[in-house]
Design goal:
576 residues
């Protein structure tokens, strides 16, 4: 088998070597600033991903983009897709980049590539891959000396660990991270602290542990208060926040972070301390963040938990107004579900039924829409790629035909080789089975001749072995084993022997552990005769006539003893 596989591999390599020569593509001299530069391509992606990919390929032909940025840009575009195929392609490109000369030994570029791998793993819900890539990114950040980014990345790893079931380990890691980040001196560290706290809150909420949430937003609020009192002591070192010296920028960040902390506290207190939950809801309402869609989505769970169904419905009125006609999404599905719950609680069952019916229908439509969207996206991408490769196809048409012919011949050779191999193996197995069936029949023949002979005793009381010969002859001669209900008591009645002598005859005087084992062996041997001499009988009938109560038990016992099914044994006993 290995020899055949080696021959086939050699044929394949020869075909590829002979047919793989492609026409050389001459790059145009770099034209400098053109519409095909990397930043233009990325901006185009936001509006038209397919067009962005075409622009990227054009930039490659014009020679206006180096290999590193080519692969990184293509991987970035694919990583932001919702299509499984493109996400996998992004992963492959990034893994290639990590081995590329333009990336190896350059931590900044390694970090950028690993960011994409972490994102694609998250999009594919592959937590194990997510942890692997995030761990590598943390190592690279540590090499660059960016300890805050190391901690920020470890916080994401902790969430993935919790998702994989290592909840306590993930929470312990977050506690350690939060402890290291919660100190003054850096805006970047303060921002990383808020991210780590949010990650722990999400895990605790998923675990249904709201009381453990309460200290976390309070910790963030204390850090924000300290920053406001001592802002001059904090280094403006966060590229993520795009700080400027305008007070409005800082005010927006503080308002946003405080608003989220108030919302977390309101939701945490809602199940068991109504007054505290209302207090933080009022604080949230005093922030500018409360006017955003995100804040209103955070408010509703607390309102629902507090039984403020009218307030929750009013919040949803605002949310729906902001959503406008964009209602074919999961956000609107949540709105319909919660409206149904609120309507039912307010004593409007008909209205509640209507909302729940719409919710169920929208959920179904969303599933259908997702499949349809994926199909349309793939078709659009395919058409764009077809147009792009039309010229290349014309150039390579004759080469492709030659490759197809060679490949067809190769498949023919492979099919013939596989067919010959399978036929040969089938013949070997067939021969072995026929030999085995013949051996079984021959063994049964000689065994019957031996067992039919009358036992001779040396005199006196027969031994256990001699008694077994007597009982064996009695059972087989009178075919007592064909009685499905035959047992030790019936044998005692027929032989007029005491129970202990019958038991010893089989357990001590034979190769069988007990009488039932011997009876089963007799029945199986008898069934072999029926299978050979009475082809008109079904397997079920053979089982019944051999003393088995159930055909399934018979088939299992037969296969355990003879290594083949009754049907196969019958087939092999036929003349050929």
């Amino acid at each position: 088998m290995r020899k055949i596989a080696g021959i086939l591999l050699a044929i394949t390599l020869a075909l590829v070597a002979g047919c793989g020569k492609s026409p050389r593509v001459h790059q145009i001299k770099n034209l400098g600033s053109t519409p095909y530069q990397e930043d233009t391509i990325r901006m185009t992606y936001a509006r038209n991903p397919e067009r962005a990919l075409i622009l990227l390929d054009s930039a490659i032909l014009l020679g206006n983009i180096d290999p590193y940025h080519t692969l990184l840009t293509r991987a970035t575009i694919y990583s932001r897709s919702q299509e499984e195929l493109q996400l996998k392609e992004a992963q492959v490109l990034c893994e290639q980049l990590l081995q590329h000369d333009s990336v190896v030994g350059i931590p900044q570029r390694q970090s950028a590539v690993l960011d994409l791998l972490v994102n694609t793993s998250r999009m594919q819900s592959d937590d194990e891959a997510y942890i692997r890539w995030a761990t590598q990114k943390a190592d690279v950040c540590r090499e660059m000396g960016d300890e805050v980014e190391v901690l920020r990345t470890r916080a994401e790893i902790a969430v993935a660990m919790a998702t994989l079931g290592q909840v306590d380990e993930g929470l312990d890691m977050l506690d350690d991270i939060i402890g290291q980040l919660d100190r003054p001196g850096s805006i970047n560290r303060m921002d990383a602290l808020t991210i780590a706290v949010k990650r722990k809150i999400y895990i605790l909420n998923d675990q249904g542990r709201p009381q453990e949430v309460i200290p976390l937003p309070r910790r963030v609020l204390r850090r924000l208060d300290h920053y406001e009192r001592h802002s001059a002591d904090y280094a403006e070192d966060s590229y993520r926040l795009s700080w400027s010296k305008r007070p409005a920028d800082r005010a927006r960040y503080l308002d946003f972070t405080r608003g989220q902390a108030y919302a977390f506290l309101a939701n945490a207190y809602a199940p068991f301390q109504k007054d505290s939950a209302l207090y933080f809801l009022n604080l949230l309402g005093s922030t500018n963040y409360a006017k955003t869609m995100g804040a209103r989505k955070m408010i509703v769970p607390a309102q629902m938990a507090l039984g403020q169904y009218k307030d929750a419905l009013a919040t949803y009125d605002i949310i729906e107004k902001q959503m406008g006609a964009d209602t074919l999404n999961t956000d609107y599905a949540v709105v319909l579900r919660d409206r149904g719950i609120a309507a039912n609680a307010l004593g409007h069952p008909a209205e509640a039924y209507d909302y729940m019916h719409r919710y169920a229908r929208l959920t179904r439509d969303l599933a259908d829409k997702l499949q349809e969207s994926e199909a349309h996206d793939y078709a659009a991408r395919y058409r764009a790629k077809e147009q792009e490769l039309e010229i290349e196809r014309a150039r390579n048409e004759s080469r492709v035909r030659g490759m197809m012919l060679s490949f067809a011949l190769f498949l023919l050779v492979v099919a013939a080789a596989v067919a010959a191999l399978l036929l040969h193996q089938k013949q070997i197995v067939e021969h072995k089975n026929r030999v085995l069936a013949g051996q079984i029949a021959e063994t049964l023949k000689y065994k019957e001749m031996y067992e039919a002979s009358e036992p001779e005793y040396a005199g006196g009381k027969p031994s256990d072995e001699e008694l077994f010969r007597d009982l064996q002859l009695l059972i087989k001669r009178d075919r007592l084993f064909l009685d499905p209900d035959f047992d030790r008591q019936k044998l005692i009645d027929v032989s007029h022997l005491p129970a202990h002598r019958v038991g010893a005859a089989f357990s001590q005087g034979s190769a069988f552990s007990s009488l039932p084992d011997f009876i089963r062996d007799c029945r199986l041997e008898y069934s072999c005769h029926l299978l050979t001499e009475h082809p008109e009988l079904s397997i079920k009938e053979v089982a019944a006539k051999s003393g088995f109560q159930y055909a399934s038990t018979y088939s299992t016992d037969f296969k355990n003893k003879y290594a083949m099914t009754p049907s196969r044994y019958r087939e092999l006993q036929r003349p050929h």
